[in-house]
Design goal:
single chain, about 575 residues, mainly beta, Alpha-Beta Plaits, Porin, four-stranded antiparallel β-sheet, 25 strands
Length: about 575
């Protein structure tokens, strides 16, 4: 191992890291003082994510939607539109991205989002049927609104009101995804003696999505067919690390709905049910039973308030969060606040259903003037958990704070604090959208120094890593990122995760191209910049009797991802 930098980086890469930090700080300061220009709604399509009788509730919902989209890296304007005595919350869409964006919104926070035509075309019947799904939005049932085109006069004989159908046609959506990864291993990596360098991996995923509404009930099913091949399968790392974060097992979940149909030395083929739920909604109440995804908190890179299968900081595929087997009760209050009570059921290592491995949580989400907050109390894996999230607009930017106080694993151990403070802003540059963010993360379960070879990690940290609740070893991190839309179809992004204790950093760069209608192509790079012994350097695994040093991790990774939504 070299005494200088463990990873052979070019001077250009080092300069990019330094430049990004300075650029993001300057740009954030400038953008905070800028008032964003009003954008004329010129889009052909929009996606409806809510409909409100009260204007104040609509304004708060718009702010919440903007925040949610920004923290997911979705640069889409959110506007209000008055129609038939109500105010709709709309997300702008284009002919090229409308289907993909609709899928994203349905999977993130708005399962009943539907597509609205703005350019005067009559809305297709399939889209009209979506209006019946609106009761699950945090408002009373919405009234379907006609498109901009005037309806044809109807003869008197046909004006008799027809009975409303009880059931609606089944909605079928799908996504096809291909993912390829190449990793350039350091010269000291122990795997280089067994595999070729660079290592290569690939996966293909077909997800079929079924939605069916029958009266007040909505049924949802996601079936995924996954084919994986390459070195990761050979070495038992079939999830392709933390970049293409896919579930390949239901170990620990209440129901085992993953089946492996074929496996070899370097490939495996499996089927998985990732969503299987029934939702009852009536007026201001909603109850969900089955396998579904839950996202809490406001983290952009780190999610201390979201212990339910959070995305890794390096995850590229964020279309669908892995689901949990749960019961979720939601109640909308008259003032626009809402309450959620959640219970996640799991099995222990002996396949026994126990309360000690389950989670019970309650969240109060509300508004105070122009601020948005969440209060959380929970018992997670038999550990008490208290959380607070606050979101505050400051000019065109949004500042967020998530704080989670968690009980230690050992009896009598002190409570630990996990928290973030972040800010982000989107603004136009030469009629193209730019976006910057900064996020500080503190993990009280982390270590104050990197472990040496053979040194055991603290029990609390080991447990959190195995559960996929945290992904880093130490305590304090700063994440900076920026993206720019060079063309309506091309977006470039760059981010850095910096370990504030040892100075090491993880660089991520990506170019995203809307290659065709409802298709997206992404290619990028992930690599570390670190000295020997730092977190993002290759970790010391062993020293041979001859004195040779063998390491693990710290590779430069290059990926290509293609997705088609239809």
């Amino acid at each position: 191992m070299q005494g200088a930098k463990c990873i052979c980086w070019t001077d250009l890469s080092i300069a990019m890291i330094n430049a990004l930090g300075g650029f993001a700080r300057v740009l954030m300061a400038v953008a905070l003082s800028v008032v964003t220009a009003q954008v004329v709604w010129a889009d052909e399509y929009a996606i409806v994510v809510g409909s409100y009788a009260d204007q104040g509730n609509a304004e708060r919902a718009r702010t919440s939607a903007e925040t949610h989209l920004r923290q997911r890296g979705i640069n889409a304007p959110v506007r209000l539109l008055a129609a038939n005595g109500r105010t709709r919350v709309l997300v702008a869409a284009t002919a090229q991205n409308r289907q993909r964006l609709l899928q994203q919104l349905r999977q993130l926070k708005y399962p009943d989002a539907w597509l609205l035509t703005l350019a005067g075309q009559a809305r297709p019947k399939a889209e009209v049927s979506q209006t019946a799904a609106l009761p699950t939005s945090p408002v009373p049932k919405a009234t379907p609104v006609q498109s901009a085109a005037q309806p044809r006069p109807v003869p008197r004989a046909q004006t008799k009101k027809k009975p409303r159908p009880i059931a609606q046609p089944m909605q079928v959506d799908a996504r096809v995804k291909g993912f390829a990864l190449a990793a350039d291993l350091p010269g000291s990596d122990w795997q280089r003696m067994q595999v070729s360098n660079p290592t290569t991996d690939a996966s293909g995923d077909l997800r079929i999505i079924l939605n069916k509404i029958v009266g007040p009930l909505q049924f949802q099913l996601h079936h995924s067919t996954l084919l994986q091949a390459g070195d990761a399968v050979q070495w038992g790392q079939a999830a392709l690390g933390q970049i293409d974060q896919v579930a390949t097992t239901d170990a620990g979940r209440l129901l085992d709905m993953t089946w492996q149909t074929d496996a070899g030395a370097r490939h495996q083929w499996s089927h998985r049910i990732d969503r299987l739920s029934m939702q009852w909604h009536q007026a201001d109440w909603s109850v969900t039973l089955g396998r579904q995804a839950v996202s809490w908190g406001s983290g952009i890179v780190f999610q201390p308030l979201d212990p339910f299968n959070p995305f890794a900081p390096t995850a590229v595929d964020r279309d669908y969060k892995n689901g949990d087997d749960l019961v979720l009760v939601e109640r909308l209050l008259p003032n626009g606040h809402d309450l959620q009570v959640l219970h996640v059921m799991r099995r222990d290592e002996r396949q026994q259903i126990r309360s000690g491995v389950s989670s019970t949580a309650a969240k109060w989400h509300g508004y105070l003037r122009n601020s948005e907050f969440e209060l959380i109390v929970a018992n997670h894996y038999d550990q008490n958990f208290v959380g607070l999230s606050v979101r505050q607009p400051v000019g065109p930017a949004v500042i967020r704070t998530d704080l989670a106080w968690r009980e230690g694993l050992v009896s009598g151990d002190r409570w630990r604090l996990l928290g973030i403070v972040n800010a982000d802003v989107a603004f136009p540059i030469r009629d193209r959208m730019a976006y910057v963010f900064a996020e500080y993360f503190h993990n009280d379960f982390g270590m104050q120094h990197m472990p040496t070879a053979g040194e055991a990690l603290p029990r609390q940290l080991q447990t959190a890593l195995l559960r996929g609740e945290v992904f880093n070893l130490m305590r304090d991190y700063l994440a900076l990122g920026a993206s720019y839309q060079w063309h309506p179809l091309v977006t470039q992004s760059l981010s850095v995760i910096n370990n504030l204790s040892d100075g090491s950093a993880l660089l991520q760069g990506q170019v995203s191209v809307d290659a065709a209608q409802n298709q997206r192509l992404q290619f990028g790079y992930i690599g570390g910049y670190a000295d020997a012994g730092d977190e993002f350097a290759p970790l010391l695994a062993a020293i041979s009797p001859q004195g040779e040093i063998h390491t693990q991790g710290g590779s430069d990774r290059y990926y290509l991802r293609w997705a088609w939504y239809f």
